[in-house]
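Supplementary Methods. Inverse-folding protocol.

Structures were first reduced to a discrete structure-token string of length 470. This string, shown here, constituted the complete conditioning input.
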């Protein structure tokens, strides 16, 4: 496996020690980008005049002007990192945008149009905090490909652009791109983009009878579960249509990221999810963010699918504890491994809440020391349990931890990131400066359970890894 870390003196990492990107077998995993750089004090007035005249407020106190300056620099930093990795914006396979206040999304869209002629599939989410040394209004993270460096994943081809007439996008993002056998789909939301005003699905009445299998006919339970159940079913139907246009089926989805607006919707979502996938559920990660999609949407679904015509074998890892949700703990495709969301679970599959609940005596000692300073009680113990679980899943695939190319870490309180780092160092101390790329995001619900304070989303690359599991 070829692997190299990208480090730039001109762009500050969000947390010291991490590279700006990791290139592994031609795939580029970009760390979180923020809207600032050392020695740079950029204001809205410093942006190109043609951009400033594009419908922005003419008054300096406007918050969208401050945001636009920060978003511009975040994209400039992303572009610098991509070029240092040997690629460019046209080869981005997936991009996440974290906004501290999603009211400024129209301003962000103007920035993105200036930087990306054909945008990647994306999800734009309102979050609690965007931690980092420079800028706090926006964060970007991305996955890209270096053209022709890996024959299996040669380059990006856009199969459904943002202006596709048959499947209109809700904003400036491509619906789907391909990279070899993999299809990366944008985050889908439950809105009717083919109708005037793109109305939101609000309940069972907005979907056909075949999607109402959880309906009871009683107003109280249907008013509680109906919105998320109907929105989940409808969104997956749109995913199904998008895949069908590319000759694929729902069973070809190997990984799916789901963003909920309310953690209390998880059980109803999960029931619909299980009905749709049956025993072929993909690896799953579920987080709870401050805002998804349009106002009134409760869910966003972002799938990654494998074209079965490519004949690529799939490795799946079973959970080493009772499964927290449907699907495998990780899935491997051609040396790329995508993990399900890893929570701080013990051997019984339950969230830990104190150092005394850890099975590992070393973990108990480390977490006991750190929990004296944590802002969220139980955070250190959950970090240790999450890394222990991640290691056990990787071991089942004969995958060393140093094969991890990227971690996105969702936390409940950004002030506790240093505690996470203390725990992470215990598991990755042998890699030295060869850390994976990383992103950190503060969410009101880092996981699908109300007590979750940390969740790790990991990607790894290893052509030598064995195919274990189911």
């Amino acid at each position: 496996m070829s692997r190299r870390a990208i480090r730039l003196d001109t762009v500050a990492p969000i947390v010291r020690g991490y590279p700006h990107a990791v290139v592994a077998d031609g795939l580029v995993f970009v760390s979180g980008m923020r809207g600032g750089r050392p020695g740079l004090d950029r204001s809205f007035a410093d942006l190109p005049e043609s951009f400033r005249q594009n419908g922005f407020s003419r008054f300096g106190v406007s918050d969208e002007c401050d945001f636009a300056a920060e978003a511009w620099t975040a994209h400039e930093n992303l572009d610098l990192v991509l070029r240092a990795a040997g690629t460019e914006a046209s080869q981005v396979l997936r991009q996440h945008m974290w906004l501290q206040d999603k009211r400024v999304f129209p301003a962000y869209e103007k920035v993105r149009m200036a930087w990306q002629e054909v945008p990647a599939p994306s999800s734009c989410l309102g979050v609690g905090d965007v931690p980092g040394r420079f800028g706090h209004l926006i964060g970007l993270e991305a996955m890209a490909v270096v053209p022709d460096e890996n024959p299996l994943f040669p380059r990006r081809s856009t199969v459904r652009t943002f202006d596709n007439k048959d499947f209109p996008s809700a904003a400036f993002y491509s619906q789907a791109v391909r990279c070899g056998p993999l299809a990366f789909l944008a985050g889908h939301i439950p809105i009717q983009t083919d109708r005037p005003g793109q109305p939101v699905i609000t309940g069972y009445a907005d979907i056909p009878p075949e999607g109402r299998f959880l309906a009871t006919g009683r107003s109280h339970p249907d008013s509680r579960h109906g919105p998320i159940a109907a929105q989940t079913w409808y969104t997956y139907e749109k995913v199904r249509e998008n895949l069908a246009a590319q000759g694929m089926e729902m069973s070809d989805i190997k990984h799916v990221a789901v963003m909920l607006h309310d953690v209390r919707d998880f059980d109803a979502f999960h029931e619909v999810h299980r009905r749709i996938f049956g025993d072929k559920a993909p690896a799953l990660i579920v987080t709870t963010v401050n805002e998804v999609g349009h106002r009134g949407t409760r869910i966003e679904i972002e799938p990654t699918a494998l074209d079965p015509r490519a004949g690529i074998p799939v490795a799946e890892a079973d959970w080493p504890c009772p499964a927290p949700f449907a699907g495998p703990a990780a899935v491997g495709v051609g040396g790329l491994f995508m993990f399900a969301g890893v929570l701080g679970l013990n051997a019984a599959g339950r969230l830990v809440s104190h150092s005394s609940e850890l099975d590992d005596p070393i973990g108990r000692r480390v977490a006991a020391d750190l929990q004296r300073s944590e802002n969220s009680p139980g955070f250190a113990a959950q970090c240790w349990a999450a890394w222990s679980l991640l290691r056990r899943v990787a071991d089942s695939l004969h995958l060393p931890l140093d094969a991890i190319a990227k971690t996105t870490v969702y936390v409940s309180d950004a002030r506790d990131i240093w505690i996470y780092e203390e725990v992470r160092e215990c598991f990755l101390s042998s890699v030295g400066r060869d850390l994976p790329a990383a992103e950190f995001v503060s969410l009101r619900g880092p996981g699908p359970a109300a007590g979750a304070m940390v969740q790790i989303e990991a990607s790894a690359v290893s052509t030598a890894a064995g195919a274990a599991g189911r």
